[in-house]
Design goal:
Helix 3 packs antiparallel against helix 4. A hairpin with a 6-residue loop joins strand 9 and strand 10. This protein has a domain of 62 residues: Helix Hairpins, CATH 1.10.287. It is 34% helix and 33% strand. The radius of gyration is 33 Å and the shape is elongated. The chain is of the alpha+beta class.
Length: 259
């Protein structure tokens, strides 16, 4: 605060006046600090944010979705070229069917007529089990040629088109679920101590013509501080079924409204 020389002289005319001014300054600093801690700033993130890839290399044979599509768990997003794997699975199925018939015939003879030895019966059983396992392995290799969604969500990024080559674990798609979202703040320990697990809080999220206010709950308070910054991570979870909040925007936990 800029004071005129006359006013400064008047205020500091005596020792009592000087002490009063000092106390007033301390009080103003305390009020300023309290005002600064009336909210905790952070950034919103989707409840689910996953990047999907294929565990094997190949050529993109089909892209089943487009950006903006909402998919359910198990939905096929990409198919790699899989003609060889389909033929191998079909061949293994023929083998397992043949081994099963051999084993069942031998089992019948062993139980009814005893015309075959137990060793022969056990050998046929082992051959059938091996063929069955090899068929399952062929089916698993075929399944690896399909990239499926592990959760429900919206496709926000697709990286390759049909005919393009992909490597193992190369990012192919990004999927988010914004029906719920987090507001993540990194705060000092004093501010973190004012919150507790499952506490209801009011959140204010930037965006649009005016900030959006929503109710949330404290979902996570880190038990440790970041060694570099000394800050503690706090995550507040809130419902966002209509997509009013676009995750990625800044927001605040309003401490004065927390309860």
């Amino acid at each position: 605060m800029n004071l005129s020389p006359a006013l400064r002289s008047s205020l500091l005319g005596g020792n009592a006046s000087g002490l009063f001014i000092q106390a007033l300054g301390i009080a103003l600093l305390a009020l300023s600090a309290a005002a600064q801690q009336s909210s905790l700033s952070g950034v919103t993130e989707p409840f689910v944010d996953v990047t999907l890839s294929a565990p094997v290399p190949g050529i993109i044979g089909a892209r089943k979705v487009k950006e903006g599509d909402f998919v359910q768990p198990g939905a096929v997003l990409f198919e790699l070229d899989q003609r060889y794997e389909e033929l191998e699975a079909a061949r293994r199925k023929l083998v397992v069917d043949e081994r099963q018939r051999d084993f069942q015939g031998t089992e019948t003879l062993f139980k009814s007529t005893k015309s075959v030895s137990k060793d022969d019966r056990d050998k046929k059983e082992a051959e059938y089990k091996i063929a069955f396992t090899e068929h399952e392995m062929a089916l698993e290799q075929l399944r690896k040629r399909r990239v499926t969604s592990p959760v429900a969500g919206t496709i926000v990024e697709l990286h390759l088109h049909e005919g393009e080559a992909c490597q193992s674990y190369q990012p192919l798609a990004r999927l988010v679920d914004t029906r719920q979202a987090y507001l993540i703040c990194n705060v000092e320990s004093g501010a973190a101590n004012r919150l507790k697990q499952d506490q209801t809080v009011e959140l204010e999220i930037d965006g649009g013509e005016a900030p959006v206010r929503v109710k949330g709950k404290i979902h996570f308070i880190s038990p440790v501080a970041d060694p570099a910054s000394g800050l503690i991570k706090i995550k507040a979870l809130f419902e966002n079924p209509e997509g009013r909040v676009k995750p990625g925007l800044a927001g605040r936990i309003l401490l004065n409204a927390a309860r």
